Amino acid sequence: MLCRSAQNLYWLGRYLERAEHMCRLLRLQMETLVDRPRQEIHFGWQRIYANLQRRPPLAKAELELYHDDDLMLADAYTLADDLTFETSNPDSLHNCFAYGRESARQSRNYLSFEMWTCLNRTWLQLKEVDLAKIWQPTPENFYARTAEQLAAFAGISASTMYRTQGWHFLQLGHALERAQQSSALLQAQAKLSRAQKNPDADNWLSLLRFYQALDIYQWHYHVHIDPPQVLRLLRHDRRLPCSLAHALLQVNTEIGTLFTDTKIADRDLQQLSDALEKQSRPPKSSDNATALDLAACREQLRQLDRLIAARWFDYNIEDDPATP
Fold first, then answer.
1. Under DSSP, is residue 64 helix (H, G, I), strand (E, B) or coil?
2. I need a surface site. Which of 39, 55, 172, 249 has the fewest CB within 10 A?
3. Per-residue pLDDT reduced to its tens digit, 255-277
4. Which helix or strand (DSSP H or E) is residue 231 part of?
5. What is the number of alpha carbons within 13 Å of residue 289 lying toward its C-beta?
């Protein structure tokens, strides 16, 4: 397939996964605004912006400087707008959809009719609203509904998209973005928790809810929330669909499949992919769930993205081993 089409499908997977990640984070955060303590609400906003490595659009740089409840709720509107509709924020929900839809439009011939219809309908619905319209009733319903539509797109893709190389580039983008976002979120959670004088178990409970893993955690461990065990589950359990380990395993699988389909291999890319896959395995020491450096994992994922681009998207055709 054309490298341009492969790149568009790869980035379609990345942008839609990024949008779903943001939807689920904002839905969780909107729910905390109702009746949760001020500290937990502050922690949620800090976690989101640390995940994005973005400074909040406030007069003062640090969220913990705000202590008045009324001011904090007013700021919540500004923060939600920045993360949802702000066009200058490349990671906003609006921009992720806009970039994803454009990538889909340029690779339209690889998508099924049902995929394009689902994506286009969701984009048109998003264009018709602003934060004022979704804020008055229950904003968490908007984010929940949007996340459901993105999940529907993934299901429609799995059931209708033809299994060519395009499918594997779409899945590779989806898996790599999930791994990148998951490692960033876990790193932000651990860093913010260490900075707290009295770590709050509710912050770890909300993380389990984000990963839809609360029942799984209680089944594996117990009702009491233990941060190292939470990190171990979300970091290393390959059976958990949203876990970092599952995403890294999928990245490795898709790269191996693409090498097989194209009859081309790249030793550096494969070695890095294999190294990341090995990181998904639980550490031998059961008392250290954070033995693997999440920051190093994120850097390896960025390096992997650059190698993927160099191998399949930006290469010189004269250097392509497949060129006669």
1. helix
2. 55
3. 999 988 766 667 878 888 888 87
4. helix 227-236
5. 17
